[in-house]
Every structure is written in C-alpha cells, then in structure tokens.
Design brief:
Elements (H helix, E strand, L loop, with lengths): L3 E10 L4 E3 H5 L6 H8 L3 E3 L7 H16 L8 E5 L10 H9 L5 E5 L5 H14 L5 E8 L19 E10 L4 E9 L7 E2 L11 H5 L6 E2 L1 H23 L8 E4 L4 H11 L10 H4 L6 H11 L8 E8 L3 E8 L17 H26 L6
Parallel strand pairs: 4-5, 4-6, 11-12
Antiparallel strand pairs: 1-7, 2-3, 6-7, 8-13, 9-10, 12-13
The chain binds oxa(dethia)-CoA.
C-alpha cells in the first residue's frame, strides 16, 4: 500500500525579546539603513536565559499538535533539525520527546545547518511512505544568538532565534510531500560554521581565546553559492514531481537575505508576490526559517488545501535542498482523534510528573542494585 505524508499541523514559537537594527547599532559599527538595504532584516528575536533550542522546539511542537488535533502519544517519530542544539548529545529531539510526553516516539536530531529542516521533512516523509511510521513531528529550532560574536558586525546582524514545527501524518490520499532534492558540497565547509567544541577542536582555553566557539561566515562566498543553487534546486524538485513552474502556487525559501531570494525568483521568472518572505521580522533563523515562514503564511490564510509549494534552502556544509509539497491542512474532523487541549495545563503537569517519576525510579534502582559489575 502507498502512504502519502501530509502536513496536517503547524506551529511556531519565537522569543518575546526583539532586537532592532538600531539596538545593534549601539553594539557594533552598523546602522539600520545598511542592514535593511543589504539583507532586508529590520529586527530579530533573541532567546531569554530561560529559553533554549529545546524549550522553543517544545512550544512550537505543542502548537503544531494542537493544530493537527492529535495527542503527543500518537507521535511515532520526532526529528529536530538544528545548528544550535542544547547539547552535543543527547539529541534535542529526546528532550522535546520527554517535555511533550510523546511516550512512544523515537527521536533524533539532524545537523545540516539551514538545509536541515528540508532533510528532516524528507526523512520523516520517507518513513511514512514505507509504512514504517504513521505520524511524525518535524521541528526546526535555533538559539543561534548564543553562538554569535556580538562584536562582529558581519555575522551578529544576520541571525535570530525561533522554532517552527510540522506534524506529518500518513494518508492513502495522494498529496503531501511529493519530491525532494538533497545536495552537499563539503569543499565549502570552511565558508560557514562553528568549529570549536567538536572532536577536531575540543573546547580548551586556546579555542576560547581564538573565538572558535563563535559562528564564522564568509558572507560574500555564501551569497554567491546561494544565488547559484536556489533556482536550480527549485527546478529539479518540480521536475521530479512533474509540476510546471506555472502550476506552482508558492515558494517558501530559507530566509537568509532578501537579495538572495529576489535573485532566485528573478532567475526562475517566478512572481515575487508568490514567494513567502518574513525575514524582516525574524532575521535568519537557520533551520527554523522555512517553518516560521510557512506557519505565518498559513495563519494569514495564504496557503489553501491543494496549493503546490516548494520549500528551498541552503546553508553550511555547504548544503542545499528542496521539497515539493501539496498543502493539506488538518485532516477532516471524523478522521482525527480529538485531543482535549482544554486539558493542556493538566497534561503538561502529568508529563513533568512522569519525567520526575522516571528519574526517581532510576535513582532508587541505582541505590538498590548498585552499579553493574565491570566486564
Ligand atoms: O543561512 C545561510 C547564512 N548566510 C547567508 O546567507 C549570508 C549570505 N551573505 C550575505 O547575506 C551578505 O554577504 C552579507 C549581508 C553578510 C554582507 O553583505 P555584502 O553586500 O556581501 O557586504 P560585504 O561583506 O561585501 O561588505 C561591504 C562593506 C564592507 O566595507 P568596505 O570593505 O567596502 O569598506 C564591510 O566592512 O560593508 C561593510 N560591512 C558593514 N557595514 C555596516 C559589513 N558588515 C557591515 C555592517 N554594517 N553590519
């Protein structure tokens, strides 16, 4: 049997704290006019000390489940795409799994920088196509503000924090995720990244003094690469899905720079009014940028069931990719299990209690049975 992976829920979460271009001009030698004309960004959101990639992802996930009207216990798989995970390991997805009480879900992270959300969507869709799972939560979440050098005007003006999530559900009705393109060129690994804290440059005093724990970027080269690949990846994914550019309703690109997006649209001869852009308010939120733009477009009523959409992204790696989708929206009422969101507060209390109980049981088991004998 053929299963199709439909997007049936979506949600987002951004920190309340807004950092405007004028605020940045007080930190580094820049100004609103330069940032707006070179990037299109007016402001971005910055996580508070209490927020992390996992907490933003959790909030976005809860909104997405709410939209799809399904319970966390229906979720089979959680994938978090992120470049700023809470830890090197465990996966941020596991923290989200515990926080939302997705008791039967597997969970893992994808690291492919800003392209990560497209790869994560494709992995979840493929698992649904094969019948291996029926419901997935795919999340892009970032707190890149924690990795920025706030004295470097070439990077700190670009990035922002936030999270967006999709629920994917299996259905026999054709639609949902139609095709995907995934590409990489590791010869450009030195153009954008964060080198310290991994196994090649473990955290040490010199790595801290040399600022290797900060994001680095060769903006000009990344710009050239991005404008080269965006149009090609869009055409390739449409060819795979057998959709013509004329039939396409929306392009939802990675929100890195308005000039990159406009160049790609011009190359494709695709109307810019049908390209979703919200980077003016959030900056570049890496893996979260495509779902954030999608959620806002859906909330504004732009996306209609049946619309054909291409998501297209690029980023460190170098990596790039695209995904063609037929928009679905929540499944009809009679086909979904209604999740009583009125009980959300109670449910979150239960989830926290469950997590504490599991830790408590593990603690007492350790005391009673002691450590396992060494082999
Ligand atoms: O998710 C993928 C992430 N990355 C990207 O998509 C980045 C792609 N690249 C870009 O968006 C652009 O390259 C930037 C916005 C980063 C930079 O724009 P640009 O037009 O390539 O500027 P530039 O680096 O060539 O710099 C031009 C001038 C330089 O001054 P001089 O040497 O001409 O005197 C810079 O020092 O602008 C200066 N400059 C700034 N001035 C004011 C660089 N950053 C700033 C700044 N404010 N923030």
């Amino acid at each position: 049997m053929n299963f199709y992976a439909h997007i049936t829920g979506w949600g987002m979460s951004v920190p309340d704290k807004v950092l405007t271009n004028d605020d940045l001009a007080e930190l580094v030698d820049t100004n609103d006019e330069w940032i707006q004309s070179r990037t299109g960004i007016r402001e971005r959101r910055i996580a508070t000390d209490e927020q992390s990639t996992a907490t933003l992802a959790t909030d976005a996930a809860i909104h997405a489940l709410d939209k799809a009207k399904i319970s966390p216990s229906d979720v089979d798989l959680i994938i978090v795409a992120t470049s700023s995970p809470d830890n090197i390991f465990p996966a941020t997805a596991s923290i989200v799994q515990d926080s939302i009480g997705a008791v039967k879900a597997g969970a893992f992270d994808i690291s492919a920088a800003c392209t990560g959300f497209i790869l994560a969507l494709n992995m979840a869709a493929q698992a649904i196509h094969t019948g291996s799972i029926s419901t997935a939560l795919v999340i892009g979440s970032e707190t890149l503000s924690r990795f920025l050098d706030w004295t470097d005007r070439s990077t700190c003006i670009i990035f922002g924090d936030g999270a967006g999530a999709f629920v994917l559900q299996a259905s026999e009705e054709p639609g949902g995720v139609l095709s995907a393109v995934m590409r990489s060129d590791g010869s450009g690994a030195d153009l954008l990244g964060l080198s310290a804290g991994g196994s090649y440059y473990p955290a040490s005093e010199p790595t801290i003094h040399e600022g290797k724990h900060f994001l680095f970027m060769n903006g000009k080269e990344v710009f050239r690469f991005a404008t080269r690949v965006m149009a090609g990846a869009t055409k390739d994914v449409l060819d795979q899905a057998d959709i013509s550019l004329e039939e396409l309703d929306w392009i939802i690109p990675h929100q890195a720079n308005r000039r990159i997006i406009e160049t790609a649209a011009r190359r494709l001869k695709f109307p810019i009014e049908q390209v979703v852009i919200n980077l003016d308010r959030y900056g570049n939120t890496s893996t979260a940028s495509i779902p954030l733009a999608t959620v806002e477009a859906a909330q504004e009523g732009k996306l209609k069931p049946g619309d054909k959409i291409v998501f297209v992204g690029f980023g460190a790696g170098l990596s790039w990719g695209s995904l063609a989708v037929q928009w679905t929206g929540p499944l009809p009422e009679e086909r979904r299990k209604v999740w009583p969101y009125r009980l959300l507060g109670l449910y979150r209390f239960y989830v926290r209690l469950r997590s504490l109980l599991l830790r408590w049981i593990r603690f007492w088991e350790g005391l009673i049975w002691g450590r396992p004998p060494r082999q």
